[in-house]
Design brief:
217 residues, 7 helices, 3 strands
Length: 217
């Protein structure tokens, strides 16, 4: 009998496995004119010429996802205006104090996520998560004055944040974002729905893994 195990053979590799949500959100970025590449030197950055760089997967936190990161960057773009794609890092001065538009982005992110039950699944994972988690069920309700200092804000800035977030939600339904972002959020929600029946039996392949599935959110 021919011993196939000892026969030299180099299997051809003709495809690459991708997380389904990576496909959805990388395609969405491309539809919107963004090229996504990995860069070990940064967490996320844009160059003003359509390049969106994200940190490599092995440098990110366990709950960082390509979907969440691209969604967050698109929300920055919407809040900062259509022309922001032509400015490095959406026009933010990265070494400056907190830009109020960061909080408006988070509120837009919550509002768009809420349309599909995805607020937690697509929640940001940066240092601004504390502000995001403080956003009320109505994403346009200002935080109480007593909470704002902890987030580097005040009542005047918070009012401006909420006003811009409301306007940005309307902008999000228009060009160039509306169709592409809505389709991506719908697909993400469909994946979430399909996975729910499996979560009760899910067990991590990592021993003593303390983390729940992101889809449980």
């Amino acid at each position: 009998m021919h011993d196939v195990w000892n026969t030299p053979y180099e299997r051809p590799i003709r495809s690459r496995y991708l997380d389904p949500l990576d496909v959805v959100w990388l395609a969405t970025a491309r539809r919107l004119g963004l090229r996504v590449r990995r860069n070990p030197a940064i967490f996320s950055a844009t160059n003003g010429e359509g390049l969106l760089e994200l940190g490599p997967r092995d440098t990110l936190d366990p709950d960082d996802t390509t979907a969440q990161m691209i969604f967050h960057e698109i929300c920055h773009w919407i809040v900062n205006g259509a022309d922001a794609i032509h400015h490095r890092d959406w026009g933010f001065a990265l070494q400056a104090d907190l830009d109020w538009r960061e909080h408006a982005c988070l509120r837009l992110q919550a509002a768009l996520g809420d349309r599909h039950g995805l607020r937690l699944i697509l929640a940001p994972t940066s240092q601004f998560r504390a502000y995001f988690d403080a956003i009320r069920a109505d994403p346009f309700v200002p935080l109480p004055d007593a909470e704002l200092a902890a987030h580097g804000s005040d009542a005047e800035r918070e009012a401006r944040v909420c006003e811009r977030a409301r306007t940005a939600l309307v902008d999000a339904d228009g060009e160039p974002w509306g169709g592409a972002v809505s389709a991506a959020l719908t697909a993400t929600a469909q994946f979430s729905s399909m996975l729910q029946p499996f979560l009760a039996a899910y067990a991590s392949d990592v021993d003593d893994d303390p983390l729940a599935s992101l889809w449980s959110g």
